[in-house]
Design brief:
three-stranded antiparallel beta sheet, 50% helix, 13 helices, alpha+beta
Length: 421
């Protein structure tokens, strides 16, 4: 299926009934839908696990005509059987987070006179398999916009994100203290290792990503230790991801997918970032806080920003986390030593996620492979990974951002002793 055809198939899932239910949930039962239309605003390469569009709505309320825009996340209609279960799971997880968990987290924060989490409001979700939709607040009228995914976040942007992640993580521990059994009946136990019943497709994807990284390192030369480490780590992928789901001292609710595409920023008149909004909670789960930090720092920053500022970044996170915990009477405070040790213990995951994200992040929109079935009956996942591998290898020579961004991760982990030299 061509990209344009797939987007049309996604749009066909948006029904007038769903729009009416969203309007009712947001504006009340007296609001009357006048008209609505779909208006795309994202580019190819901005969305992967879902298609994101907007619905422009005209309505009347109390005799007055009005207009509002909603963001709608739609089943991506990939047509790949291996990923249908995963797609359904991530929509269930995100709807559960927004509609059930987020109000509880915000309530815990408000009880301590703390500001609520920087996340959009969710108004409605319909979760029939293969027809999933989630309607959210459109943050654009409030001045929030996406940062250029091909640029690395600077210190100011990164600090805003780290503070918000710290608040999310700490709020989850305060909620756990208040409602010890709450998390037992949620989908937050679903991580990469058990996103589907048998892990079908998930580990194939990660293995393909690491195979590509090995080929890139061989092409560049001089990274034999990194190649050996990557190949060894690939053989233990399932064990690594399963271990992350085990209960641990530092287990919190993660954002789970905190990289450039899932962050929106609001700016001052002179262009300085003032606020951040976290979006796309489709892979939220309970794991160590350090997984989110590694994911963010090794996918969304360049090495020349991350390495010299790493201590500052960890302290920014630690200070905010401890402040929220102290305000809520929590006792799980982080020391500097504990913070660094936990971060380093999850560096392997940071490297794995960087291998997965960096190529797609740096590609021009028109070069991003379309991860959908072409109906040929061939292995769609392997075909997509082969196309992505080819483009990544080409980018080493054609994209000046690729080589330093890719190698900086391995250079830092070699220096830190995570990768044996």
């Amino acid at each position: 299926m061509k990209h344009e055809e797939r987007i049309q198939a996604c749009h066909s899932l948006i029904t007038e009934e769903a729009v009416k239910e969203t309007l009712k949930a947001h504006k009340g039962s007296e609001a009357r839908l006048t008209s609505w239309k779909i208006e795309d605003f994202t580019s190819k390469g901005d969305n992967y696990a879902s298609v994101v569009s907007s619905v422009q709505v005209d309505f009347s309320l109390n005799g007055n005509d009005d207009h509002i825009s909603y963001i709608v996340k739609i089943n991506p209609c990939l047509g790949i059987e291996n990923f249908e279960e995963m797609t359904h799971t991530i929509f269930l997880k995100e709807a559960e987070f927004y509609l059930k968990l987020l109000p509880r987290l915000n309530s815990v924060l408000q009880e301590e006179n703390l500001s609520i989490l920087a996340l959009p409001q969710c108004y409605y979700g319909t979760l029939e398999k293969n027809k999933e939709l989630i309607f959210l607040e459109d943050l654009r009228p409030r001045g929030f916009k996406m940062f250029d995914r091909r640029k690395g976040l600077d210190v100011a942007h990164t600090s805003l994100v780290l503070k918000e992640l710290a608040k999310l993580h700490a709020a989850s521990l305060l909620l756990q203290k208040k409602e010890p059994n709450y998390f037992e009946d949620t989908l937050l136990h679903k991580g990469w290792a058990n996103m589907t019943n048998d892990g079908s497709g998930i580990f194939t994807m990660f293995e393909g990503v690491m195979d590509t990284a090995v080929l890139m390192l061989k092409k560049l030369g001089g990274y034999e230790s990194a190649i050996s480490w990557t190949e060894s780590t690939k053989s233990k992928l399932q064990e690594i991801f399963e271990k992350q789901m085990e209960p641990c001292k530092h287990q919190v609710i993660l954002h789970g997918d905190a990289w450039n595409n899932n962050l929106l920023f609001k700016y001052s008149e002179d262009g300085a970032p003032l606020e951040v909004m976290l979006i796309d909670l489709q892979i939220c789960r309970r794991e160590s806080f350090a997984v989110d930090l590694n994911y963010l720092l090794y996918t969304s920053l360049t090495g020349d920003v991350r390495k010299p500022n790493l201590k500052t970044f960890l302290e920014t996170y630690r200070s905010q986390f401890n402040a929220v915990m102290e305000a809520g009477g929590g006792d799980a405070l982080l020391s500097e030593t504990e913070m660094l040790e936990e971060f380093r213990s999850k560096n392997a995951l940071g490297a794995i996620f960087s291998m997965m994200i960096i190529g797609a992040l740096l590609m021009e929109p028109e070069d991003v492979p379309d991860f959908s079935s072409d109906g040929s009956g061939e292995n769609d996942v392997e075909k997509a990974m082969a196309e992505l591998r080819k483009k990544n290898l080409e980018m080493i020579d054609t994209n000046p951002l690729m080589r330093p961004r890719f190698l900086s991760v391995f250079d830092e982990l070699l220096e830190a002793g995570i990768i044996p030299s």
